[in-house]
Design a protein that fits this description.
CATH class: Mainly Beta
Largest sheet: 12 strands, mixed
Order of helices and strands: EEEEEEHEEEEEE
Number of strands: 12
Strand content: 35-45%
Strand order of the largest sheet: 7-8-9-10-11-1-2-3-4-5-6-12
Distance between the termini: 15 Å
């Protein structure tokens, strides 16, 4: 099931069904604060402002968009499979969907929004919270990264005929500093302002209260 629950940085959040009840609660979660730069993204505009992403285990995510006073929008997305909530905290309205899809787990794609025609197929599965493992499993070349604030970094690079992607990490760690990739539209870059592993907080993944919800019916198109 495809749920259009977020804005330009994550154009689609794709939680897929999982059999049975709630999974065992994870013991930790990753908290990321990221911002994007690239073609068509005006510095200082709402899409360019930092957003906060939480990822916990295989079935829990939370995305906090910055407020946009002009559009009267402050978006909050919570996924606690099989439930997904997309809420405007200003208008106190939102949507709720129940996943009816296949066997895959939660996906928080990074590159997909900027590569709708899949011209960078190696990057289709690159996700927030899984950056290092993706590059390593894809056979990325490890090399010294740029010096940042006087400190050394490591870099993992993937090269493709349609473009390339580079993940820069704190030296000797799996913690991203920035992720950049070249696409046919130009160069994009995510800056990780914060990237921390914290104790799991179940309250962050609960249904937001005080919201008027509209239930989205599952899309059964193409199913037998």
């Amino acid at each position: 099931m495809k749920l259009p629950l977020s804005t330009i940085l994550i154009a689609s959040v794709l939680p897929s069904a999982w059999a049975g009840g709630a999974d065992d609660q994870p013991s930790t979660m990753i908290r990321m604060v990221v911002r994007v730069m690239g073609p068509g993204i005006k510095p200082g505009s709402s899409p360019a402002l930092p957003k906060t992403i939480y990822r916990a285990g295989a079935h829990h995510a939370r995305i906090e968009d910055p407020p946009d006073a002009r559009q009267r929008m402050q978006k909050l997305t919570i996924i606690s499979e099989p439930d997904a909530y997309s809420v405007n905290l200003i208008t106190k309205r939102g949507t709720h969907a129940v996943d009816q899809g296949g066997p895959d787990d939660l996906h928080l794609p990074v590159v997909l929004p900027f590569d709708p025609k899949h011209r960078l197929p190696k990057l289709d599965r690159l996700e927030f919270g899984d950056e290092y493992d993706f590059f390593e499993e894809a056979g990325a070349q490890k090399q010294p990264g740029p010096e940042i604030n006087g400190k050394p970094t490591d870099a993992l690079r993937l090269t493709d005929t349609a473009g390339d992607a580079t993940l820069v990490l704190r030296a000797g760690s799996e913690v991203p500093i920035f992720l950049s990739w070249h696409s046919p539209d130009g160069d994009y870059k995510y800056e990780y302002i914060e990237y921390k592993e914290l104790p799991y907080d179940p309250g962050l993944f609960k249904k937001p209260e005080g919201i008027t919800y509209h239930d989205i019916q599952p899309d059964t198109t193409g199913r037998e």
